[in-house]
Amino acid sequence: MHRVEHVMGFPVSLRVDDEHVGEEAADAVFAWLREVDARFSPFKADSEVCRLDRGEVAPGEVSADLAEVLGLCEEYRVATGGAFDVRLPGRGLDPCAVVKGWSVQRAAELLRAAGARRFVLNAGGDVVAAGGPWRVGIRHPEQADKVCTVAELTDGAVATSARYERGDHIIDGRTGRAATGLLSLSVVASSLTVADTVATAAFAMGTEGVEWAAARPGCEVFAVDAGRRVFRTGGFPVAAAQAA
Question: How much helix, strand and coil, in percent to the nearest 5, is found in the chain?
Fold first, then answer.
């Protein structure tokens, strides 16, 4: 089964290789992602996030899902010394950096609950995979038609934060300025919740974020800094043909 839909502002592709898993499992995945977009988008005036930001919902009255997301946001704000912050001065509440990985990981769990054992869920380049090995290309940060490495996943996730798609959009909350110390940073972890949030948080920290991300439990890192230097942790799962 293979399906692609545009959700949350980017293409989401799903491939399931288990013949016993039907289209209803894919329906559930995309319905959940559309629900997340409606509830947590900072760009939709009637979303729970926007209503909370306007004070129409008290902090103690948010849904359990939003409370979980905001808890993760605060955990990473503290862990990065404020570099990662979803409440930047002069801007509205924007938890997208956590919501994306968290929601897609939840979608992967829906697939597992439906009996899927071999699948790939790719959300705008961030990937959850099961039943591998699967090969996932990490895009070259300056040449759109090339990859700079290929990761091999069996059961896990990989996420990349970079400047090549949306420019200098990640802000270092400590300075209020765009984070420009890195060109791209990819994280492999057991869940996309971790991989995506760690990648964004580390990117916001600049070059010091590489070491910080590498020290996070269960995380492996591949990064290219603004000086074109490449960093790779020893456990980053490079596909065999790329290992040399």
Answer: 35, 25, 40
